[in-house]
Amino acid sequence: MAGGDLRYRGKMRIATWNVNSIRSRIERVIPSLERTDVDILAIQETKTRADQFPFFRFEEIGYQVAHHGFNQWNGVAIVSRVGLEEAAPGFRDAPSWGEASEPEARVLVGRCGGIRIVSVYVPNGRNIADPHMDYKVEWLARLRAQAQEWLAEGPTLLMGDWNIAPRDEDVWSMEFYEDKSHVSPRERAAFQSFLDTGYVDVVRPVLPGPKVYTYWDYQQLRFQKGRGMRIDFVLGSPDIAARVTGAAIDREERKGKGASDHAPVVIEVTDG
DNA sequence: ATGGTTGATCCTCAA
Fold it and tell me: For residue A5, is it within any domain?
């Protein structure tokens, strides 16, 4: 973002998007980057083997890419045209579920434009009594401990699919979600612990609810019926939160054939 | 209709 860069505009656009397979979504992701002029994109659910990630499609339009994943569900990436340094998967003390490498595949950390970008894909708890729910809550406790250390080290954005709807207004029907995953007290307490640590939801002040959703199930025409959930969040350290000048949820990307079930969440951050 | 949609390691499982 030095002087002389024709893209320099005193601001960066930073987005997060659960694409539900990068290989099946690439013909939407590339135009989306260009249309919305995004500098940094955190991606979740790449659903691809590392050797099949379409790196060149990003590189040929001027973005650097880091990707990490190990199976068809969990995979995260960071795409940036303002530098991409120190990209590394995982976080300290992540507990394991099944394959030892899974927790690391859910988090990718990189430094872009002077900001630590963390692409986060929180485990799906499946059901409130499922062992995966215990894993999810424990995993979040470990991530929080790591996030607290990052907070002390400099500007940080934790962005991605949290698989938690923190408030009743974040789901289309609390009656429907009662006793289901994403809204349970344990999950909401885990999300709140990041806020208590000092992170700030930088989107909600710009887009207060209700009915501000980022995800709509593919089934039952949920998008067309306006029945969604707010489960994708950008949590910023206070220094970054003070620099946020705007935010948007790109609902266009949920429309039509070949859409992900999640929409991109975009923020704008000033250089100063 | 104990159903519905989408994606991948594709006829089964995960989301």
Answer: no
Query: Strand B: which bases are under 7 Å from protein Cβ?
Result: 4-9, 14-15
**DSSP code string of A60-107:** TTT-EEEEEESSSS-EEEEEESS--EEEEE--TTPPPSSSTTHHHHTE
Range of the domain at A261: 12-269
Integer distance in angstroms from CA A215 to C1' B6?
A: 14
**CATH number reported for the structural domain that contains residue A56 in this entry:** 3.60.10.10
Percentage of chain A beyond pLDDT 70 is: 93
Which one, of A163, A165, A152, lies nearest residue A237 by Cα? A152
Q: Is residue A104 part of a domain?
A: yes
What digits encode the pLDDT tens for the residues A118-172?
999 999 999 999 999 999 999 999 999 999 999 999 999 999 999 999 999 999 9
Its pTM stands at 0.95
Distance A242 CA to B13 C1' (A): 43
Q: How far is CA A259 from CA A85, A167, A228, A243, A255, in A?
A: 30, 26, 15, 31, 6
pLDDT at A272: 73
* Residue A7 falls inside a structural domain: no
The C1' atom of B13 and the CA atom of A9 lie apart, in whole Å, by 46
Distance CA A167, CA A165 (A): 6
Residue ranges of chain A with pLDDT lower than 50?
Answer: 1, 100
